[in-house]
Write a structure and sequence with these properties.
Elements (H helix, E strand, L loop, with lengths): L2 H10 L4 H17 L4 E5 L5 H8 L3 E6 L2 H9 L3 E4 L12 E7 L8 H11 E12 L7 H5 L8 H9 L3 E9 L4 H10 L11 H12 L13 E8 L2
Parallel strand pairs: 1-2, 1-4, 2-3, 4-5
Antiparallel strand pairs: 5-7, 6-7
Helix pairs in contact: 2-3, 2-9
C-alpha cells in the first residue's frame, strides 16, 4: 500500500465503520481465545488493531514495512518494529497469537507470509487473518490500495494449511452490504474507497454491518473473509 493510502487509513480508522466493526470482531475473538500472551500484529499500519490487543492484556507488537505508519503507532504508545511479513524478525515458536488483517492480498508470495506466521507461532498458538474476497468484486479500489488478488474460501484455506496451520473456522464478513459495495464499485469507483463519510451515512452503515453479529449470514458471500487457525501442539 502506498504511503498516502496508509496515511488516509490511519486518519480514518478510529471513526470509519469498516475499521470500527473489524476491531469489534477482533475483541470477540480475543475473548474466545481466553488468557492473553504474546501477540504480533503483522501489517499493522498505525496500530489500530495492536491497541485492541494491548487493551485486552496481550503483550503486543506491531510490524509494518512503512516507517511512517510505525511512527504513528509509536506515538500512540504501541510497540512497533519495521519488518517484512515474509521474513519476520522473531524467534520460532515465540508468539501465541498473530493477527494479519488485509495483508496477504498485498504480497505476491502470500505463502511465505503464512509460512512465517506458522514459524513464529508457539504450539497451540493462533492466527487471525482477514482478506478481501471474490475477484468478481475487483474494482479501481483494489488497484489503488495495491491489492494483487481477492480470495475464495478455498484459496485462503489452501495457503494457510500448506503452511502447516490447522483451520479452526472461516467465515464471511460484510455480507449485508455486499450488494451496495458491488453497485458502488461497478458504477462509481474511480479509486480508493478510503475517505471520510458523513456522520449519518457512517452511522447507518455501521448499524447494518453490526447486525451481522446476530444473524446467520457468515456462510453467505460477503466482501471479506476472516479465518482463524492454530498451530498444532
Amino acid at each position: 500500500m502506498e504511503t498516502e493510502e496508509i496515511r488516509r487509513l490511519i486518519a480514518l480508522e478510529d471513526s470509519h465503520w469498516w475499521y470500527r466493526e473489524r476491531r469489534a470482531i477482533l475483541r470477540r475473538e480475543l475473548r474466545e481465545l481466553g488468557r492473553p500472551g504474546v501477540a504480533l500484529d503483522v501489517g499493522a499500519a498505525g496500530g489500530g488493531n495492536t491497541r485492541v490487543l494491548a487493551e485486552a492484556g496481550w503483550d503486543a507488537t506491531a510490524t509494518d514495512t512503512s516507517e511512517a505508519a510505525l511512527e504513528v503507532a509509536r506515538q500512540r504508545g504501541v510497540n512497533a518494529v519495521r519488518a517484512d511479513a515474509r521474513a519476520l524478525p522473531f524467534e520460532s515458536g515465540s508468539v501465541d497469537l498473530v493477527t494479519a488483517f488485509d495483508v496477504l492480498e498485498h504480497i505476491r508470495e502470500d505463502h511465505l507470509v503464512t509460512e512465517e506466521i506458522a514459524r513464529v507461532l508457539a504450539p497451540g498458538g493462533h492466527a487471525l487473518i482477514a482478506v478481501p474476497c471474490d475477484m468478481t468484486l475487483w474494482s479501481a479500489h483494489d488497484d489503488a490500495v495495491g491489492h494483487l488478488r481477492r480470495y475464495r474460501r478455498e484459496s485462503l484455506t489452501v495457503v494457510v494449511e500448506k503452511a502447516g496451520l490447522e483451520v479452526d473456522r472461516i467465515w464471511s464478513w460484510n455480507v449485508l452490504l455486499r450488494p451496495l459495495v458491488t453497485w458502488h464499485r461497478r458504477r462509481r469507483s474511480v479509486g480508493s474507497d478510503l475517505h471520510e463519510m458523513p456522520l449519518l451515512v457512517n452511522a447507518g452503515l455501521s448499524a447494518v454491518v453490526r447486525a451481522e453479529r446476530y444473524l446467520p449470514v457468515r456462510s453467505l458471500r460477503g466482501v471479506s473473509l476472516f479465518l482463524r487457525a492454530r498451530r498444532g501442539r
